[in-house]
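Justification of computing resources. Each target in the renewal requires a structure prediction run like the one illustrated here; the chain below, 108 residues long, is used simply to show the kind of job we budget for.
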Amino acid sequence: MITCFIRYEIDPFKAAAFEEYARNWGEVIPRCGADLIGYFAPHEGSSTLAYGVYNIDSLAAYEAYRAKLRDDPAGRANYEFARREQFIRSEDRTFLRLASAPHAIVRS
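Resulting structure tokens:
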């Protein structure tokens, strides 16, 4: 299992558009085969950084998932929405594996 972290630089005046984009992916991403952890929009601190995070079985599964996203009508519509509204200034993907498991259980 690998986790994809997408780091977005967004237009701070178009944060509401990014949040709509994130909600749209909330339906499409799971349907296309990834385990969506969530999209995270600015709250406090930086007003230009946002993140998307999901798990996928492997890089091969990622390639199949990306093809499904491109073929999904709602996925294509969301890509077009982002292109048209231009609220994303840049995005970077990083794939990481969990290195701290198993986690300790803390009891109070």
